[in-house]
Design a protein that fits this description.
about 75% helix; 5 helices; about 0% strand; about 140 residues; mainly alpha; single chain
Length: about 140
């Protein structure tokens, strides 16, 4: 386990995810997300940041355990596609399954675009952070 790479990956994930999440959900598309019923009351930014930090640590710690071929950025994007698909099912599909969402298709499309951006950028960064990592034979 390389603590420095995990810390860098956690920082990268946090510095990508939190600003994109705030811009996307709270600033740019706030009105639409309110109509979706996405927020109940005021969002807790402290809890949100803590969740993002923990996600980043887990995702960064798991990355070297997954063997993917290709150049570093391609490996990072492959990994991001896998974990992003998991997040998509647990974040987007679970949300629309748990409650009635006005304009469900628009919600799914918007959240899919958001996660595509978030995990696309993270995939590039995690690939670069682990660019010279070699799995043990």
């Amino acid at each position: 386990m390389n603590t420095k790479r995990i810390a860098l990956g956690t920082a990268a994930y946090t510095l990508v995810t939190f600003p994109i999440a705030v811009l996307w959900h709270v600033i740019i598309f706030n009105r639409q997300y309110l109509l979706f019923g996405y927020f109940e009351g005021e969002p807790s930014f402290v809890t949100g940041v803590l969740a993002i930090i923990l996600q980043g640590a887990v995702l960064s710690g798991l990355y070297p355990l997954v063997r993917l071929g290709g150049q570093p950025i391609r490996r990072g994007l492959k990994y991001a596609a896998i974990v992003g698909a998991f997040f998509w099912t647990s974040h987007v599909l679970a949300f629309v399954a748990k409650q009635e969402v006005p304009n469900t298709l628009l919600f799914i499309l918007m959240e899919t675009a958001y996660l595509f951006i978030q995990f696309g950028v993270f995939g590039v960064l995690i690939g670069l952070i682990y660019r010279d990592f070699r799995h043990a034979a």
